[in-house]
């Protein structure tokens, strides 16, 4: 495990993304304790720009925006990761099962995925959260998770269909391995990049969905998250008043979280995909030990000495 972490974090993309993500996780747990003010408390500092007293400025009611961003991080991270876990679990169970088993059961699960693909998820989320305003972040996360697994399940099904007839799977089946062991130890390790990529995509989608719901004023969302800040900034015409500090911090937080998740995803892709392991390295070597200079926009073609000699022999 330690060697995996060392190799994984050696990639600059992964290290940067993991550091930013760890910061957001820390703020999600300790944001309320670190906030210098109550995010809902009013003061006489009305619509003040960033200063030493209020790092991100204040709203039209004198509320501290820095405290609102810190407290709102918990809701965003909770909804994003809860929805990602739920959707990924459903995608793995339904996608891998339908791809490996096949037959009537596999086709039924595939048809179920197709049904969920055409369901208007955002409209359904708005209806459910509006009908149950006391549901809170948990309800929002569960609804997002149960409506966003279908596309990843289709991708996993297609990958499983291509893997189930590979030699290593056939060998495991010939040795009498049980179905669950083949799925856990033969298929899932080869699907890890696809699974993790789907998880990251769902987390980003869940974060944007929650921010969108809060921005349009849908009830049932937590009192403070980044979308709530943007909702009040828009409703009070912060841009027209020149109060850029009201919406820029929350917007940057959303963009920074998405960037961190993407960087971690790129790092995982390069770790599990042998074709990408040398991407970004400045000093790659050919089969005979000769250094190969990598240039942006060009993929170097490395010929082994035997292949070069055979090619020259054919030409002569």
TrEMBL record:
Q: Which UniProt keywords apply?
A: Cell membrane, Membrane, Transmembrane, Transmembrane helix, Transport
Domain ABC transmembrane type-1 residues, every copy: 77-265
Main localization (coarse):
membrane
Coiled-coil ranges (or none): none
Q: State a single Pfam family of this protein.
A: BPD_transp_1
Q: Does the keyword Cell division apply?
A: no
Which family does the record claim for this protein? Belongs to the binding-protein-dependent transport system permease family.
Q: InterPro entries under this entry?
A: BP-dependent_transpt_permease (IPR050366), MetI-like (IPR000515), MetI-like_sf (IPR035906), OppC_N (IPR025966)
List the protein's name.
ABC transporter permease
